[in-house]
DNA sequence: TAAGTGATCTCT
DNA sequence: GAGATCACTTAA
């Protein structure tokens, strides 16, 4: 049986008292690709009006370092992307295509620009649809991923076998050239 | 396959 | 301020 079917968000609600393990900054303060792969199978928890919803992560993309041509940080620090240059475990939410909010979480050490784009959770695929479904806007930009923020990451207890995670090139970044767009920086839980 | 939408950034 | 661009979605 697939782990995906063994523990669903609804069941997590009942198990939280003994299982809650919010991912701390130290989890994100590691190499971006490592964090990205380990995020698969973790919970993304969104709390609004006292109601929390946990969604299991199924798809993420890494944007790693100043040399990553597909990264917002490649052209240097700007007001928008400054948070990528800061400490790990901070939310980076930006608006694009005139209609979509994109949710990212920063990784790696201070001054090293990197973040992970949250592309999908169980039942929702596509980064724009995800933020719309969970009510994520730029109000959350620059805030730490923590309970006080209303958005955080949590260990689920699910162990995703490495062979269940497919690595592919990143989506929509062909402008960065084949070297960077084809790098296997996208992690997808192949259920 | 292309329209839609608006913030962001790079020029003037 | 103008113009180009954009880590996307949807309808066709």
Helices, strands, pairings?
Elements: H1 3-6, H2 9-19, H3 25-28, H4 32-39, E1 43-48, E2 51-64, E3 91-96, E4 100-106, E5 114-121, E6 124-125, H5 127-134, E7 151-154, E8 165-168, H6 178-181, E9 186-189
The structure holds a DNA duplex (12 and 12 nucleotides).
Give a structural overview.
The N and C termini lie close together (10 Å). By secondary structure, the chain is α+β, with helices and mostly antiparallel strands. The model is unreliable at 1-18 (pLDDT under 50). It contains 6 helices and 9 strands, in the order ααααββββββαββαβ. The chain is globular, with a radius of gyration of 16 Å. Strands 1, 2, 3, 4, 5, 6, 7, 8 and 9 form a 9-stranded antiparallel sheet that branches. The longest helix has 11 residues, at 9-19.
Structure at a glance:
With 191 residues, the protein is α+β, with helices and mostly antiparallel strands. Helices cover 20% and strands 29% of the residues. The N and C termini lie close together (10 Å).
What fraction strand?
A: 25-35%
Backbone structural class: alpha+beta
End-to-end separation: 10 Å
- What is the string of helix and strand elements? HHHHEEEEEEHEEHE
Q: Tell me about the biggest sheet?
A: 9 strands, antiparallel
The total strand number stands at 9
Helix content: 10-25%
Question: If you average the pLDDT, what whole number results?
Answer: 90
**Rg, Cα atoms, Å:** 16 Å
Shape call: globular
Q: Unreliable runs, pLDDT <50, ≥5 residues?
A: 1-18
- Number of helical stretches of at least 4 residues: 6
């Amino acid at each position: 049986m697939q782990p995906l079917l063994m523990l669903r968000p609804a069941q997590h609600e009942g198990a939280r008292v003994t299982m809650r393990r919010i991912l701390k900054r130290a989890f994100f303060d590691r190499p971006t690709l490592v964090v990205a792969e380990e995020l698969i199978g973790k919970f993304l928890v969104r709390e609004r009006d006292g109601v929390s919803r946990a969604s299991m992560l199924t798809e993420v993309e890494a944007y790693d370092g100043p040399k990553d041509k597909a990264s917002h940080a490649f052209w240097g620090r700007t007001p928008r992307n400054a948070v990528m240059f800061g400490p790990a475990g901070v939310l980076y939410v930006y608006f694009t295509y005139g209609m979509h909010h994109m949710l990212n979480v920063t990784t790696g050490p201070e001054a090293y620009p990197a973040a992970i784009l949250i592309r999908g959770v169980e039942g929702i695929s596509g980064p724009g649809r995800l933020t719309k479904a969970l009510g994520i806007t730029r109000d959350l930009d620059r805030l730490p991923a923590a309970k006080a923020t209303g958005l955080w990451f949590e260990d689920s207890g699910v162990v995703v076998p490495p062979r269940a995670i497919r690595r592919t090139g990143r989506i929509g970044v062909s402008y960065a050239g084949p070297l960077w767009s084809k790098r296997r920086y996208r992690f997808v839980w192949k259920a």
